[in-house]
Amino acid sequence: MSQFFTTKKSIILVGAVIGIIAALMQFMGNPPNMGVCVACFERDIAGALGLHRASVVQYLRPEIFGIVLGAMLAAFSAKEFSPRAGSAPMIRLLLGAFAMIGALVFLGCPWRTLLRLAGGDGNAIFGFLGLICGTLIGTYFIKQGFSLGRKQVASRAAGLAFPLVMFGLLVLAIVTPEFGNGVVFASEKGPGAMHAPLWLSLGAGLVIGALAQRSRFCTMGAIRDVFVAKDFHLISGVLSLLFFAFIANLMLGQFNPGFEGQPIAHTNSLWNFIGMTLAGCAFVMAGGCPGRQLIKAGEGDGDAATFVIGMVIGAAFAHNFMLASSPKGVTEFAPYAVILGFIFILGLAFSARAKINLD
What we know:
2 strands, Seleno_YedE, Sulf_transp_TsuA/YedE
């Protein structure tokens, strides 16, 4: 079975399963074209914990907890649970924060970019082009010497810390009604109020987490491999996700082609592109897309967990400081935050190059 997950058939199958599950989760109550979106769901979790005050995007999303726990269980079963950490934690946290800001300017992570395309949202074309551009920029910086350093072996307790936090939040999501109001926040309208049944959401997350862990599914890695190594293994899974989500949307009556009036999206093509360029660059420099970061955190990678926490903090900043877009468009302050993100990334790249020159 372990050899199967190294084949192209396996990555195509995993992409198909994720695409179909995402479409079904939308059909069962998740927001339109957002069956599974790591950035959006982490943003909802930040709101549920009171880290931001946008009342329409607050909900403890079981899918996120399931992805981490599913990856952990798969890693243990394959004897791949490997606690490690210690590589530039503050930089990873800031990369996560700026990646989230860029993603919320566009309104979606790489997975949702594909799901928006599969649902007929033409605006996602510019987001996907931004991801490609960001991947190429980030890869160039890495080739020029950017590195977050070597990881060190950590204790099993350190590796289990983040999955245990996810388990604790899952328990809170399950038992919250017994505590009454005020323990966590939950939207009464808007995207945060749209969700599939809790146990179905958890099951979907567990399946996605386990399959993605075994197959090493990663959207940013797929784009990077095509342009850098002419390797089409991972991109086969990404295209499979897109295709099968599209077919499932057609069958479920969820395919609505066009640019105007798309759900939880805006039509500012320039900032759709720029926002995802920032996000894509940050993802590559940090070592993977947000879904892959959740998977690695489930495997015991404390650095990936730091990046995820950075994304949650970035979501809080994005909404508290009016940086996140809405169907009305990009906010007044978002461009300044995106520019600041590019300055930060350029500073990292320049410092790495300067270090090489000094050496």
